[in-house]
Amino acid sequence: MTLTFDQNTYRNLLTEVVPVAIETEQEYERVLKVVEELTFKKNRTTEEQALHKLLVILIEAYETKNYPMEQSAPHEILQHIMESSDTRQADLVGIVGSSGVVSEIVNGKRSISKAQAKVLSEYFKVSPSLFI
């Protein structure tokens, strides 16, 4: 089944959200709220996925400029995503490996393989590059 992209639906989403380059903290907070809602929405449409991707790019540009920070380790990013989504280590057993493997990955004792990064990215609906 191929998902089609409906330009009218996308246009309506854009009209509702009005994405612009983020210049203020207030605009940042507004866009961040929309992204969080889309991130945790079940069964996002193709148009919502496109809007989510666009808004994430705008947020990343603003954060890079205004909140420069050191690169986090992949396991720290995984810990943050797990905490934000109320995911337990037990939820990842069978997805990335045994309970021992999951524990080692989450605690930074084992690096995340490319295959595991791909599976985690699909599970959390984020870019696999976060885990590599």
UniProtKB/TrEMBL annotation:
Record GO biological process: regulation of DNA-templated transcription
Domain of life: Bacteria
Gene3D superfamilies to which the protein is assigned, alphabetical: lambda repressor-like DNA-binding domains
Annotated HTH cro/C1-type domain residues: 90-131
Molecular function via GO: core promoter sequence-specific DNA binding
Name of the protein in its database record: Transcriptional regulator
Organism: Cyanomargarita calcarea GSE-NOS-MK-12-04C
